[in-house]
Amino acid sequence: MNNNIKKYFIKDPETPLHVKDNDPNKWEKRKDNSRKRGNKALQQIEEPPAPISQVLFYVNELLEFIKFDNEVKQRTIQIRQIELDNTKQLIIDNGIIAVNCHWIDYIYDKKTRKYTYYDSKYDIIKTEFDLSYPNDIIWLKFTTDGYLGVVAGSFDINFSYENTAGRLVNSVEKVWDETFVLIFPLTKDILNGRKKTDIETAVGNYLIEKGVPIIDFYSHNY
Fold this sequence. Notes:
Number of domains: 1
Oligomer: single chain
Distance between the termini: 22 Å
Largest sheet: 6 strands, antiparallel
C-alpha cells in the first residue's frame, strides 16, 4: 500500500480506551473517558461545519485512493440510483445519499451470537454493490445545523440519543437530522483484505485531516 494512504489506517493514540466490566476502577475511568470525549465535542463545534457536499466528496476521494493505491488521477463521476423504502435514492460514486428512509433496529441473539433480524434495506444495498455481507458499510449522520456527528459502520443506522454519539450531540445542544444519512458500501475492491473497521478509521482520519469537525471525534477508532 502506498505510504500516503497507510497513515489514515492508524488509530488515534489519544482515543479513550474501552473499560472492562471487571476493572475495579471502571466507573472512574468511564467518567474520565466521557469527560474527554465531551470536551472534544465542545472543541469541534467551535469550528464551522463542513458543507455536506464537501464531506461526500472527501469520502469518495479517499475510497478511490484506497481502491487504486493513491494512483487516481482524472476520472468521471459516476451517478446512478438505488431504490430504498420505495424511493429512488441517489448514488454518487461510492456513496448513497439516503433521504427520508426509516431505519429499523437490528435484533441480536446473545446466546447464539447471531443477528436474527436486520432491516431489509441492507440486503438491497448488498445486492446492488455485490458486498460480501450486508453490514459492509460505513455511514455518516449529521446534525440539523450541518455538523458531522459520527463516522460509524455496520447495519445499525439510527438516530438514537442513548448511545455515545447521541449523548455527545445532546451535550453540545445539537439535534440529529433524521431526514438523510450518507452510506458508503464497502465493495470488495475497497476492502481488499482489510476489515470494515480499518476503512472506518481511514475515513474519519481523512476527514479530520481535511478540517471536517466531528462531534463524536473518536468514533472511527473503535
